[in-house]
Amino acid sequence: MSITIYTGEGCRNCHRTMDVLTRKGIEFEAVDVATLPRAEADALRAQEFRQLPVVVVEGGDSWDGFRADKLVTLAAEAVAR
Fold first, then answer.
1. Where are the bilayer-spanning segments (predicted)?
2. Is the pTM of this model over 0.85?
3. CA distance 55 to 5
4. Which residues of 35-67 are buried (b: 16+ CB within 10 A; e: fewer)?
5. What phi, psi does 18 have (nearest 5°)?
6. N or C: which end of the chain has fewer CB atoms below 10 A?
7. Cα separation of 76 and 38, whole Å?
């Protein structure tokens, strides 16, 4: 399961999300949106993501903002694998 977290400098919810995943032993790639090419950033906006972090689970769910409910589900799925 590949997880990408799009983050921003000083984003408290980004740090909270990454902290939860780290504590659960779930690997992820963090990508600073400031480093994205404009087309890739526009593609995220086109998917109606409006806040950080944006969490993208390959072959699964995607969401924006800090979502404890989604993180619990993701951790349960990771344990089941």
1. none
2. yes
3. 5
4. eeeeeeeeebeeeebeebbbbbbeeeeebbebb
5. -65, -35
6. C
7. 34
What are the sequence ranges of the domains in the chain? 3-80
Q: What is the pLDDT of residues 17-46, one digit of tens each?
A: 999 999 999 999 999 999 999 998 889 889
Which helix (DSSP H) or strand (DSSP E) does residue 2 occupy? none
Which of 7, 61, 58 shows the shortest CA–CA distance to 30? 7
Q: For the residues 10-19, what does the mean pLDDT come to?
A: 97
Q: Catalogue the long-range contacts made by 70-76 (C-beta closer than 8 Å, 24 or more residues apart).
A: 71/17, 71/20, 71/21, 71/24, 74/3, 74/21, 74/26, 75/20, 75/21, 75/24, 75/26
